[in-house]
Amino acid sequence: MLGRTYDRENCSAARTLELVGERWSLLIIRNAHFASMMRFSDFQRRLGIAPNILTSRLNDFVANGIMDVDEQTYRLTDKGRELGEIVVALTGWGDRWAAPDGPPIVYAHTGCGGAVTMRASCDRCDSAPPMIDVVATPGPGADAVQRERLDPGQGKI
Amino acid sequence: MLGRTYDRENCSAARTLELVGERWSLLIIRNAHFASMMRFSDFQRRLGIAPNILTSRLNDFVANGIMDVDEQTYRLTDKGRELGEIVVALTGWGDRWAAPDGPPIVYAHTGCGGAVTMRASCDRCDSAPPMIDVVATPGPGADAVQRERLDPGQGKI
Question: What are the backbone angles phi and psi of residue B68, rounded to the nearest 5°?
C-alpha cells in the first residue's frame, strides 16, 4: 500500500494510486478484467510475478473491495471492474507514444464491435477538450488550503 | 524505471507504466500540468518527496521526452501533457470510490467552464459503454501469441 506515502494528499488521483499504484497492480487488474483470469496460478504464470508479491496484491484487492475471493477464485467487484477504465486510458497513451509497431490490443465494444477508447469529455459543450484546455478547480471535497490556492480558472492545485 | 519488470509485456498499458508507474511519477505530472509547477524546489516542497527520488523522476521524464529542462525549469512536452488524461481518469475513479467528502478537485474546460471527465467512448455507436461490455482484441501490433490467444469477441490477453 502506498497509503502512508500519499497521506498528505487530499486528491482522488492519489487515493486511487494508493490502492492500485504498486508495481503489477494494474496489470493484474488488466488480466482479471480483459483476460478473465481468476486463479492465483494463472496470474502467476502469465505475468511471471514473484508469488509473495502476487499474494500481497490479491490480498490488498480483497481487503479494499476491489476483488472478492471464494475458494481461491478471485473476481473483480463493480469497484474493481471500473478500474478497467484506467487500463484503457494507460493503453491509449501508450498506443500514441510508445507503440512503434502499432497498438498491440484494440478494445472493442461487445454491443456493436466498435473500438473503445477513453476520451476527455466536457459535460457542458460536449467537446473532447485537449488537456491544455483543462484546469483544476476546487470541488465539494476541497480543503481550506485548496480553496484558497485554487483560483478558479487558474488551476493551481 | 520499471522497464525490466514489464519487459515480457507487449502491451501499451505496461509501456506507459514503465514510464510513469513509479511511486510519485503521476503526482509530479499532476502538479506540472494542473498546478503549473516547473521548479525542483516547488515540487519538493509541495509533494514532500525525498530529493533523490524527485531527481530520479525528473531525469527520467527528460530522458523519455515527457519533460524538457532549461535552466532548471521543467516543462511538460506534448507527450507529457497528454498524461494529464491519465491523472483525470485516476481522479474519476477515486471520486466515485474513494472520496467520502465529495470530489476535492473538479477539472474544468477553459473554453466553456464545463466539468471535464474521462469517459469510455465507442467510435462506432458513439455510446459510453460500461467496462463489462468492453473486450480486448488483437491490434496491428499484436504478436503471434496474442493473435492466437485473442479470440475476437472473447477478450483473452
Answer: -105, 150
Which residues have C-beta within 8 Å of that of residue A90, sequence separation ≥ 6?
A: A26, B12, B13, B16, B17, B86
- A1 close contact with B: CB closer than 8 A: no
Residue A34 host element (H or E):
helix A25-34
Query: Does A113 lie at the interface with B, CB-CB under 8 angstroms?
Result: yes
Q: Specify the pLDDT at position A5.
A: 73
Q: Could you give the CA distance from residue A106 to residue B157 in angstroms, rounded to a whole number?
A: 11
Q: Model ipTM?
A: 0.94
| Segment A150-155 mean pLDDT | 60
Nearest Cβ partner for B23 among A21, A94, A143? A21
pLDDT tens, residue by residue, A120-152: 999 999 999 999 999 999 999 999 989 988 865
The C-alpha atoms of residue B24 and residue B111 are separated, in whole angstroms, by: 30
- DSSP letter at A104 equals S
Instruction: Compute the distance between CA of residue A15 and CA of residue B92 in angstroms, rounded to an integer.
Output: 11
CA distance B71 to chain A (A): 23
In B, minimum Cα distance to A107 occurs at B136
Domains of chain A: 12-81 (1.10.10.10)
Residues of B in contact with A150 (CB under 8 A): 105
Residue B85 to residue A92, Cβ atoms within 8 A? yes
pLDDT of residue B1: 42
Compute the mean pLDDT over every residue in chain A, rounded to the nearest whole number. 93
Q: Do A109 and B133 touch (CB under 8 A)?
A: yes
